[in-house]
Every structure is written in structure tokens, then in C-alpha cells.
Amino acid sequence: MFPRFPGPITGDLEGDLAILLLAIALIVALRAIDASRARNSRLASLAAGIALAGVSVVLFIDATNAPNPQFLNAPVDAARAAQGKTVYDHFCAACHGTTGHGDGPAAPGLRIRPVDLTVHVFQHDETYLAQAISGGMPAMPAFKERLTSEQIADVIEYMRLLGHQAR
Ligand code: HEC
To answer: What's the pLDDT score for residue 64?
Structure first.
């Protein structure tokens, strides 16, 4: 929705804009408690404050879901991805789905929905992803006993390929 630019507060201009807008929303909304003002203009201030806060939340959610350009632009190693596909189809597809969208046959039975890997793979660095896979997550088993670190690196490469295919 929004092209990525670096920003001084969160590192992302859209995220920074959301914070700035929230501060403005608060100032505008605070004008609603100024008793010397007419009731209608106080109500208008309140409405404007709430509307601005709403826009701020939308921007913030959009910013947190945006891919990190650094991860998005990194080249995919096709040979590793091909090896990763075997691992993925065997160990991951049941929950995360063959295309990575989190819609595998086992997904409906889980208490936490498997994430859409095609989105999440571009939000985290390799260390985080490898840690999630080897150590597991609240609703996801740990794979450190079943996969070598090589295989985990391969499956991450395949997730990145799925991410590009989904875009
Ligand atoms: C039993 C179902 C299941 C299996 C099998 C499974 N996952 Fe997950 N996975 C989940 C769920 C559910 C989450 C959401 C986080 C949680 O559990 O709280 C998740 C989260 C993740 C995350 C974290 C994403 C983020 O943004 O935090 C990664 C990466 C991941 N899975 C990769 C894999 C890979 C690779 C495999 C195969 C080696 C795999 N998963 C196998 C259910 C599963």
C-alpha cells in the first residue's frame, strides 16, 4: 500500500507517520475537554481525534505487515530452494499449505492459525526464522531433532521462493 522509506523513529517512514498522527489525534481530541469551547466544536474535535487515531492504526498495521526491502531484494538460491521443497512438503505443508499461505489440511484443527509464510518470510531475518523452525513456536513443533541446520537453511530458501511466487 505504501512504498518503503527509512524513518527516524521506527526506521520506517510509514510507521513514523502513524506515531506522529497518533500524537496529533491526541492533541485534537484533548481540545474536546476544553470547557470554554462550544459543545458542537468540542464534539467535532472529538470526532476528528478519533478519525485521526483510526487512520494512524491502519498505517501502523500496514507498516508492520510490510516486507523488509532488504529481505525482499535478496536473491534466492535455486539449488537450495529445490532441496528445501522436499523438506517443506514433508514437514511443513500440512499446516502452512503447499503454497505457504497457512491453509494446509491440518490448519483448521490448531488453536493458533499457521502464519502465511509468503508474507512473514520477508519480515524476519534468517536468524529469527531458523530459531522459529528449530525451537518451535507455541502452536508449532520444534524441528531441531528432525532437521539439520543445513536443511533448515534450505527450507528457509524455499519459503523465500514461495514468497516471491505469491507476489
Ligand atoms: C503443526 C502445524 C505446523 C507445522 C507442521 C509447521 N508449522 Fe510453522 N507455524 C505453525 C503455527 C500455528 C505458527 C504460528 C505461530 C505459533 O505457533 O504461535 C507457525 C509459525 C511459523 C513461523 C514463524 C513466522 C513468524 O513470522 O513468526 C515459521 C518461520 C514457520 N512456522 C515455519 C515452518 C516450517 C519451515 C515448517 C516445517 C519445517 C513448519 N513451520 C511446520 C504451525 C506449524
So the answer is: 81
